[in-house]
Predict the structure.
Amino acid sequence: MPAYSCGLRVSLAGGGTDLPSFSSVHGSLVIGTSIAPGVTVTARPLKSSGSILLRLLGEHQSVNDPREIRNPFAREIFRRYWDGRSLNVSSGSPLPPNSGLGSSAAFCVALIACLRPELPSQEVARLASEIEIAKLSRPVGCQDHYLGALGGLRELVINRDQTVVTQRLNVDPSVTAELRKSLMLFYSCARRDAAKVLSAQDSSVVCGDEPTISRLKAIQSLAWDMRAALLSGRVRDVGEILHASWNIKRKLSSTVSFPGMDNAYATAREVGAIGGKLLGAGGGGHLLLQVPEEAQPAVRARMRDLGMHEVTFDFTAQGVRRVPFAPAA
């Protein structure tokens, strides 16, 4: 069996509206891109019969029955898609999990691709999102799975019946390059489970809380603005839309942000950042900023003073893909 790699996710607009509690009633539009580095899953054959050796996130486990797997994502995937052959499975990424980049989705996509390499990428994305949302009952959306599995700067339209229509945005390469050059990514070192952060929002929507629903509708409207800005090459508008969306998102739940992050974001704006957002559900993780090139040294210095670590990344047009085996440890 091969090794497969899946990019992580940067959502530019529409995040949070992809949860089924909202999108099944109002629909959803998400604008985002996959980034490298990502998550790689390797599955090597073992000589023993019907066993699974797992090395995931530093935890080792050997089982004969998939139901005994402790990692919930791996457990559900092996229960459904394992063909019974003995495997030594490991995963890795240079970026930390639970930090707002969709690492759990990337892991699910890469593992399903390893076990079912004949499946097209969009089907892998659908199955991976089904694992998290339907099988594990996590209050998350499907954007991470589709953006990682399909790659590129793209739009996701999630219909009320939960079907997903997605296509790459027809953005001029010079605009994409300018956008990438203007973005900076910083890690706060605060990690959290997205499902726990999103559960309050999800419960509010299910209960019909009008302020929460109105805010999500406003975030969805800004996704259309983001789409228009990118298609027309108005790169600077991206930061303004990020800023407007973040100000709304912070009001969805008290767990979305925290004083240290609010201070870091305000500081970045003071020294030249146009706008930005905490990626993913919030509560910690990675801060994305759009910063004019001339202001980037000042932003970099101030973020470093606040203990924020700059992360090197790049856009990737590749979705989930087969990669060479890494040398055995």
